[in-house]
Amino acid sequence: xxxxxxxxxxxxxxxxxxxxxxxxxxxxxxxxxxxxxxxxxxxxxxxxxxxxxxxxxxxxxxxxxxxxxxxxxxxxxxxxxxxxxxxxxxxxxxxxxxxxxxxxxxxxxxxxxxxxxxxxxxxxxxxxxxxxxxxxxxxxxxxxxxxxxxxxxxxxxxxxxxxxxxxxxxxxxxxxxxxxxxxxxxxxxxxxxxxxxxxxxxxxxxxxxxxxxxxxxxxxxxxxxxxxxxxxxxxxxxxxxxxxx
Length: 245
Ligand SMILES: [Zn+2]
Ligand SMILES: [Zn+2]
Prior knowledge:
Elements: E1 2-10, H1 24-33, E2 38-44, H2 50-59, E3 63-71, E4 77-82, H3 85-97, H4 106-109, E5 112-115, E6 121-125, H5 137-146, E7 150-153, H6 163-167, E8 178-181, H7 187-193, E9 201-204, E10 219-223, H8 228-235, E11 242-244
The protein binds zinc ion (2 copies).
């Protein structure tokens, strides 16, 4: 068992509103400075940049998980993580098809750039990644699990685009043993207002769109291996696995 300082919610240059400064080399340099040992790239509704960042992270001894931040039909942000990279990229095709055919407003959101590990621009994504996919929350969870992924509702304490903000409550189904929180949340105060959430596990992350956001939030995750499946076992506190924030 090993403990990892982890930031599992980071946006790349692909994300609308993301900074073009978030190139793989700049990101990895900053991650190393911060002594973060495990990262995930979670762009909005896409995994297209995961491979480029994975290559550079792994060359630098940083564990990497393929991820995405899905925006469901209810406008809920849902993090999805995958251990199997082929399945992850197959899921990406399904996710892309579930996104409406609306063009990105590059003047407002910035260019959505797909790159390779050498930071060459492979293509500029024209479809707006900032929209909701056609899947409901339940359908999104089902589709992710079909590709052996796991789901974590993102920033549940945020007023908008969070499961609690959009629905007003945490549904019994699907079951979410792990809940994402914003970088600055004081969990003790939050749990006093939401005693029903006591006993759940929480994942703090930076949700960085810019280099300067990195380091504002991370979690310490004790697992056998830095894998999504292990993260879920840690959420359930199995065999001394644990997540502390
Ligand atoms: Zn979000
Ligand atoms: Zn995000």
